[in-house]
Amino acid sequence: MKKNIIAIAMILASPFVHAQSLNLQGKLTNVKDAATVSLIDGVSNKELVSGKSIAGNFSLQTQLEFPSLLVLSIDGITQKIPVFVGNENVLVEGDVQNVAALNITGSISHDVYKVYMNALNPKMLPYITNMQAANIEKNTAKKDSLNSAAATQSKDIIATFNTMSKANAGSPVTTLMLLQFSNIFPEIKENLASIYETLAPSAKKGPFAEFIDKTIASSTFGQIGTVLPDFTQNDVNGKPFTLSSLKGKYVLVDFWASWCGPCRAENPNIVKAFNKFKSKKFTVLGVSLDQDKPKWLEAIKKDGLAWSHVSDLKYWNNAVAAQFGIQSIPASFLIDPAGKIIARDLRGADLDKFLETTLK
Q1: Residue 46: CA count within 13 A, CB half-sphere
Q2: At what angle do helices 172-184 and 140-167 cross, to 10 degrees?
Q3: What are the φ/ψ torsions at residue 278 (nearest 5 degrees)?
Q4: What dihedral angle (degrees, nearest 10) is formed by the CA atoms of 292, 331, 277, 244?
Q5: Residue 15: left (phi > 0), alpha (psi -120 to 50), or beta?
Q6: Phi/psi at 235 (5° precision)
Q7: What is the pLDDT of residue 284?
Q8: Rounded to an integer, what distance in angstroms lies between the CA atom of residue 347 and that of residue 331?
Q9: How many angstroms separate the CA atoms of 176 and 179, rounded?
C-alpha cells in the first residue's frame, strides 16, 4: 500500500462528493455460474441488494447514506468479503479461493481499511492467541507468563492504533476501529470520549459514530452503587424471565451474542467463575443480542453456559440493551443481592479476583 495516509485523511476530511450511489462490480474466478451475490449491511446484518454472477462477473448497485463496512456474500463461498465503501465505483477482482488476496479498488475508505488491517491483524492474532491460552492454562507460572506477554502486545496494539487514528482522523474507518478497540481494551474504553473528540467532523457521521455518541451519552448510566433497573425478556423456552426473580443472589448480567467473537472468547472465564462461586449465591443471566434462535441455542450448548438466558432476538435493537445504553459487547453489570451495581465489565482474571474478594 503506497498511498500517503495523511493525504487520504485530508481527502476524507472534505465533504463527501463521490458518486450518487454505490456501483460495485465483480470480476472473480472460481465462482459457480448463476451464483447469488449479496451485499449485506455490516451493522444491521440486512441484505441491501443481490444479483447473479455470470462467469464470475456481477454488478450491484445501491445507495448509501454514509460510507460503512459492508459484507459481500457469494453463494457457495464460505468466507465473506468485507468492503468498507460509500457511494463510489468499486471493483472487486481476484480468486475467491484466496479472499485475502482479492484486489478491491475505487474506494478511499477501503484503502484506509486495508492499511488498518495490514498493520493491526498481525498484532491482534498473537495477542488473542495468548489471551485464550492464558484463560485455559492451569499452571500459574505459565498463565502469568502468557498474561504478561499479552499485556505487552496490547500496549503495542494500542500505540499502533493511536498513531494510525491520528493519521486518519477524518476517516469513518477510524471511527469503526475506535468502537471495536474500546470493546477490547479497557484503556481505550476509559478514554473513548477524549479520543473521539480528536476526530474530524467527517468521521463523526454514520452508524459507528452513532454508536459512539450513544455510548458516551449513556456513560453515566449504571454507575457503581446505583440499582440496575429490572427487566423481563423471554428465555430459551419462550417464557418471560425477570431479573428480579434472582434477587438475593450476586448476578452477572452478561450482554453477549453467538456471533460475537470477543464474547465467545470470554465465555470460558464466566463458566469458570460460575462453577467456582455458584455455591456462594452467585449466578449469571445472559442477555443475547442474537436474531437467529438456533444459533443462540447452539452457542449456549457448545460453550457450556449453564445459567439462565433471555433474548428478544432483535439483534442490536434488543430492548434491554437499548434501555441500558449497550453499544458494544461483551458488556456486563455485576449486582449484589439487593440489585445494586458493584462492578462493570469485569473480564478474564478480573472477574474471578473480584468475586474471590467479595464472596468470602
Answers
A1: 5
A2: 160
A3: -65, -25
A4: -80
A5: beta
A6: -85, -170
A7: 97
A8: 9
A9: 5
Contact assessment for residue 238 and residue 49, using Cβ atoms and an 8 Å cutoff: no
* Cα–Cα distance for residue pair 245/242, rounded to 1 Å: 6
Amino acid at 287: V
Length of the chain: 360
The span from the CA of 296 to the CA of 234, in Å, is 13
What single letter denotes the amino acid at residue 106?
A: G
pLDDT, residue 19, reads: 58
C-alpha cell at 233: 425478556
CA separation for the pair 229, 323 (Å, rounded): 9
Query: What pLDDT score does 22 carry?
Result: 97
Using alpha carbons only, what angle is made at residue 210 by residues 50 and 165, rounded to the nearest 5 degrees?
95
Q: Which residues contact 150 (CB under 8 A, 6 or more apart)?
A: 127, 130, 131, 134
Correct CATH for 5-108 of 1.10.565.10, 2.60.40.10, 3.30.1070.10, 3.40.190.10: 2.60.40.10
Pick the CATH number of 232-358 from 3.40.30.10, 1.10.290.10, 1.25.40.10, 1.10.10.10: 3.40.30.10
Domain ranges of the chain: 5-108, 110-217, 232-358
pLDDT tens by residue, 300-351? 999 999 999 999 999 999 999 988 888 889 999 999 999 999 999 998 889 9
Long-range contacts of 216-222 (CB under 8 A, 24+ apart): 216/192, 217/325, 218/324, 218/325, 218/327, 219/193, 219/325, 221/324, 221/325, 222/324, 222/325, 222/333, 222/341, 222/344
Please choose, from the candidates 54, 62, 59, 61, the residue with its C-alpha nearest in 3D space to the C-alpha of residue 35. 54
What whole-number distance in Å separates Cα of residue 206 and Cα of residue 43?
11
pTM tops 0.70, yes or no = no
Q: Which amino acid is at 269?
A: N
222 pLDDT band, cuts 50/70/90, is confident
